């Protein structure tokens, strides 16, 4: 049996396989090197870096929920200087693509980060975490058409590196936001960030999280994200990186069949530090069992069949 070809091309970005960590669930990879060979991954993705060092939100910041977790970490960051001297050299040295996730509180701040990283070299793509509130009107960039367009235009102006727009699911129409990102210069989409939720402690009769609301992630959100990826990939021409509840090879294959060109493993890393290599192995095994030589043959296969009425 020939070894399956797991490589994928996301526009100009070529990956040896379609699996990578979700930002914020893997730091920049160092801790996970104790568990598996990080060079196996298609790409490494850091916790979103901000321009200046920040502490993040006050605790409690995490609540376990059935099949998932709520978090309100609040984007703590060591800032871009530490990122350039400590994290980026580590990411670059890996034999996989280096995708740098950035987050800002204004379009200018995003633009500044993008410029610095463009000049730094060794960055294969930039992922824009648009789920941060902007300073002026406290609205989340990815839930506001005008703000999202502004950030994308500013970042596009500052770099020719591939730009990944990370979408928020907390919108009425995810396809509209995907189209907007395409129109304003994104090369790829990442779908999606966490879903806003909350938990209440019945003993204290108070919200559990310090910030009252937080982001729901993990297997609980997978079916909703799958539906979003299905809708986006049929409406928009850009490659989509799926993110939401992906924990193993079967989950990943579902998203590839739904049209995703790559997948991110997030909350699963906290439960099983081997979730990423196991996901890669699971995709490979699926291909060995079911036939296609190249993983690209399964991307979007479910909607092509569905369009054909089967
Ligand atoms: C603890 C935690 C921290 C996160 N930090 C970030 C972040 O810094 N930047 C970002 O774009 N997304 C962040 N996310 C969102 C994840 O990247 C991902 O979009 C989300 O968790 C859904 O995927 P999952 O269900 O596989 O975890 C974070 C999620 C969690 C649970």
Task: Provide the number of structural domains.
Answer: 1
- What is the CATH topology descriptor? TIM Barrel
Overall pLDDT confidence: 95
Bound molecule types? flavin mononucleotide
CATH C-level name: Alpha Beta
- The helix content is 25-40%
CATH architecture: Alpha-Beta Barrel
Share in β-strands: 15-25%
Number of helices: 9
Total number of strands: 16
Q: Distance between termini?
A: 29 Å
Radius of gyration: 18 Å
Q: Which runs of at least 5 residues are low in confidence (pLDDT < 50)? A: none
Globular, elongated, flat, extended or rod-shaped: what is the shape? globular
What structural category arises from helix and sheet content? alpha/beta
Give the CATH H-level superfamily: Aldolase class I
Written description of the protein model:
The chain is α/β, with parallel strands linked by helices. The protein has a single domain (8-56, 75-195, 222-307), classed as TIM Barrel, CATH 3.20.20. The protein has helices at 80-93, 107-120, 145-158, 174-183, 222-235, 249-257, 268-271, 275-290, 301-307, and strands at 8-10, 13-15, 19-21, 43-45, 62-65, 68-71, 97-102, 125-129, 163-167, 188-191, 195-198, 200-201, 206-207, 213-217, 240-243, 262-265. It has an eight-stranded parallel β-sheet with strand order 3-16-15-10-9-8-7-4. The chain has a four-stranded antiparallel β-sheet with strand order 5-6-14-11, with no helix packed on it. The model has no long low-confidence stretch (mean pLDDT 95). The structure holds flavin mononucleotide. Residues 22-25, 47-48, 71, 73, 75, 101, 129, 166, 193-194, 217-218, 221, 243-246, 266-267 line the site of flavin mononucleotide.
């Amino acid at each position: 049996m020939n070894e399956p070809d797991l490589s994928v091309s996301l526009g100009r970005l070529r990956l040896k396989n379609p699996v990578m960590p979700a930002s914020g669930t893997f730091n920049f990879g160092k801790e996970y090197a104790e568990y598996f060979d990080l060079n196996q991954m298609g790409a490494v993705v850091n916790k979103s870096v901000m321009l200046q060092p920040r502490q993040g939100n006050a605790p409690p910041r995490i609540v376990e929920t059935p099949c998932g977790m709520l978090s309100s970490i609040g984007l703590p960051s060591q800032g871009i200087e530490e990122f350039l001297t400590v994290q980026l050299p580590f990411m670059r040295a890996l034999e996989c693509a280096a995708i740098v996730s950035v987050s800002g509180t204004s379009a200018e701040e995003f633009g500044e980060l993008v410029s610095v990283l463009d000049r730094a070299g060794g960055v294969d793509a930039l992922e824009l975490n648009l789920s941060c509130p902007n300073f002026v009107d406290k609205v989340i960039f990815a839930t506001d058409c005008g703000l999202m367009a502004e950030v994308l235009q500013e970042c596009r102006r500052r770099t020719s590196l591939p730009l990944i727009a990370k979408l928020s699911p907390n919108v009425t129409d995810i396809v509209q936001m995907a189209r907007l990102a395409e129109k304003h210069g994104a090369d790829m989409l990442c779908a999606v960030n966490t879903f806003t939720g909350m938990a209440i402690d019945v003993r204290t009769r108070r919200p559990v999280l310090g910030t009252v609301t937080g982001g729901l992630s993990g297997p609980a959100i997978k079916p909703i994200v799958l539906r979003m990826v299905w809708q986006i990939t049929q409406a928009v021409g850009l490659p989509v990186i799926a993110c939401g509840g992906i924990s193993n090879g079967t989950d990943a294959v579902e998203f590839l069949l739904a049209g995703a060109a790559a997948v991110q493993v997030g909350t699963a890393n906290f439960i099983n530090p081997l979730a990423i290599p196991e996901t890669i192995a699971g995709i490979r095994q699926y291909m060995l069992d079911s036939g296609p030589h190249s993983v690209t043959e399964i991307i979007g296969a479910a909607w092509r069949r569905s369009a054909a009425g089967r």
